[in-house]
Amino acid sequence: MELQQSMSIADKLKILTDAAKYDVACTSSGTQRTNDGTGIGSCAQAGICHSFSADGRCISLLKILFTNECIYDCKYCINRRSNDVPRASFTPDEICTLTMEFYRRNYIEGLFLSSGVLKSPDHTMELIYAALYKLRTTYRFQGYIHVKAIPGTSQELLERLGFLADRMSVNLELPTAEGLRLLAPHKTRERILAPMRLVQNRMEENRQEIQLYRNAQRFVPAGQSTQMIIGATPETDFQIIHVAEALYKKFGLKRVFYSAFVPVNEDTSLPARTGEGPPLLREHRLYQADFLLRYYQFQAGELLTEKDPNFSVFLDPKCNWALRHLEVFPVEVNTAGYELLLRVPGIGYRSAARIVKARRYGKLDFGDLKKMGVVLKRALYFLTCGGKMMYPVKLEEDYIARNLLNVKERLPEGADGMTYRQLSLFDDARFGSMSEKGGTI
Amino acid sequence: MKTIYICTDSVTGIFSAVYEAWKERRREGASGIAIRGSVEPQLFCEYREIPENESRAEAVVRMILTNLGRDVYHHIYYAALSRDDEKGEAILGTLLAARKLGQPRNIMEHLGNPAVEKVFELSRSVGNEAHLLTGFVRFRELENGILFADITPKNQVLPCLGAHFQERFPLENWMIRDKNRSMFVVHEAGKRWVLVQEEDPEGRMDEQLLHLSGQEEKMQALWREFCDTIAIKERLNPKCQRTHLPLRYRPDMTEFAG
């Protein structure tokens, strides 16, 4: 206790930022709010990035923990009870000062407050509530607030909190209940899903209240999100993407975030350190698949099967799907439906919408497509314009796969080692692992 | 013979020139607009200097708003803020093209027209830079409580930022300086923002800026500490950082300066 009293706000900020950095989802999107003239702050629908850290992730919110003291002992977490790390807790006033002073200088778009569990979930959430209440009422702060809900918090407290925050999220932590049992012995799947369901129901009620009374208070207007750790437990991509799909469909989540596992603890239940770094390519493929679910009308079952449960290392999930369904292609740009255009590699949801709009005025050719933002080097194998393909190409899986591999894909740094590898006579090991994982060649 | 109207590099200036060109009702291609200081003389051209005229510029704005609508006006206004020298020509071309349409409000969809495409491109690049700067602007608190920020943008984005920060900080006194153009947007608590052009050859301004408030250095240190700590070192990726936050913005940002 003495240690804590002597601690300056700078020390606390360092400890509690360091402890919060593994949380993903620093987004500030989903709410549009103008200032009412009595305080400070506003929100932009698309969100605003204020800076970018050295790992290339956006800094939009002041992402901190309320406290890194914790009664739980989750094996993947730096703040687990049995770890000997410096501990600190903010007071509600300190949180308000930091948020207000940073916000005034335009450093941040708002606050992202997460926390370890101090004494009990209710006790911790009560302190967080006190901080947010003060921020919203005393300081009239109208910027963005994202708050983590701790599983096990009472229903009544979560409801009160939801009226102060823009977004609430409950961490799923690990994709399956089994993984959770193994690595987070104090958490259960049911206890995590319960607050998610509560927020979902309350948001639904709130939508009706707003229709009746225009000035009704908004409950979690930017919706809820969640995150899970990838690569700490032996789940396949197939399982993970199915879980994500279920969350979108059954819980109405705005986003599911994936976080490549970074080993911070030594524990027999965790995967051994390999020296390869976090599984960034896998995380990247999962995000690509996640976008296919949310924007491209794909179903999880179409992307992967139980027999072939992981994404290809070499090709992105959309190209992979297209190669396995060559019977659908080529697609005629001037007549194909929006849903079908969405499935063509190289056509995004924006360019698909532009195509549908522009072809009302006249026939499109490949030059027009290029102007609309279609990536032709990828799309040319799957498209016809006025019945003609761009070049004479064979609709053969091997041929197209070979050519698509020559088109360099933009991958996050650290995840791109194997794609550009020079072929050599003695180097077929990689191809072995590819047919296992991707099964395309 | 082609007539080229030469105007000052400001929204009012360009709209004043549009007024003149519009009034003479010449056919397309027979008139053009150039920005003073960037005129490349051509043969068989008549040049005419157009002074800024508030009321004429307002008439053009009214004309655009009633006939073409708010969205088109937004594109044209943003294009007029661009640093591109051919913006006047593109704006005039777009307006003349709209005159021939049955539904002139859809003019921005006619991207086949080179002038419309140019306006669209300029408006998008100004909009992008303004959006990035709504995040990247860094205020510092001066001794007298005023929040001050420096920016060095390519385009003239101050008006866009003024509107954004007035919404965000209505009860603060703040000020943003465009170092490339010696222009300021100034906001007094509770009032509307104003745009001011002021040269400061003796650097008196810079001297005043050295007097920071008591808390300022501490807050800057806290913010630098935060930005350093939040990065996960196992995932370091400076290339990705550079694509999202180009180097040219960094000299004005607290976390990268010093």
UniProtKB/TrEMBL annotation, chain B:
Pfam families: DUF4130. InterPro entries: DNA_repair_put, DUF4130. Residues 90-255 form the DUF4130 domain. This is TIGR03915 family putative DNA repair protein. It comes from Mordavella massiliensis. The lineage of its organism: Bacteria, Bacillati, Bacillota, Clostridia, Eubacteriales.
